[in-house]
Amino acid sequence: MNYRLPVRWYKSICLFSLLLMAEVPLSYALPPSGPAELPAVRKCQELTAVAGNLYRLRVQLEARAQQQDPLAEFCLSLVPDPRDALAPFQWLAQSAKHGLPEAQLLMGTAYETGMWTDPDPQQALVWFTHAAQKDFGLAQFELAAIHFEGRLGIQPNLPESLFWATLADEHKIPEAQELRASLERALKPRQQQMVRLRLQEWHSSLSRP
């Protein structure tokens, strides 16, 4: 079974950018928010609605981006720039560098699919891992799928997949529940126990100041 997600996110992002270019009202740009929505995209929608037009939006976002605001950089990656066709990817890279997990997830997708840049499986894995380590459920599910399927040049690793699938399931990512259940049936009790211990360490680290 294929648990892959990334192309779906790029379709949503590209659709959003095209609608912005056409100045379609933001209420029509994306479907209602659900558990698998990219939160940063919704925040960009809100900023766009307040700005009123693309020129004012870009000016406001570029001012914030000068202060290394990762959300502003992410939103700029969604705004078409007639001055530079590569600007969206450059802004996305900046946002990812400054720690926004949605941007890191999409950077992983860009390097895996070859959209905006040459494919680079190692870089894709790096960015997916960065986002997953930020406790971002969608990236955790993506990493679980990668280890389950053995993508990006790595061998399948079912315990590693279960670890990330469990975290994604805790974030209510719908596909994660099925993957988690499948892995729990496949793994031996000792392997599951090792994953549980690792999950305990993960949750303890999150609770530390």
Could you write a compact summary of the structure shown?
This protein is 68% helix and 0% strand. The chain has 209 residues and is an all-alpha fold. The relative contact order is 0.10.
Throw out a few tags for this protein.
209 residues, mainly alpha, Serine Threonine Protein Phosphatase 5, Tetratricopeptide repeat, 0% strand, elongated
What is the name of the CATH superfamily? Tetratricopeptide repeat domain
Q: What is the domain total for the residues?
A: 1
Query: Given the C-alpha coordinates, what overall shape results?
Result: elongated
Distinct helical segment count: 11
Terminal CA distance: 40 Å
The average pLDDT is 82
Order of SSEs, N→C?
HHHHHHHHHHH
Low-confidence stretches: 14-36
Number of strands: 0
> What is the helical fraction, as a range of percent?
55-70%
Residue fraction in strands: under 5%
CATH class: Mainly Alpha
The class by helix and strand makeup works out as mainly alpha
Topology overview:
Layout: H1 6-21, H2 39-51, H3 54-65, H4 70-76, H5 87-97, H6 101-113, H7 121-133, H8 137-149, H9 158-170, H10 174-186, H11 189-207
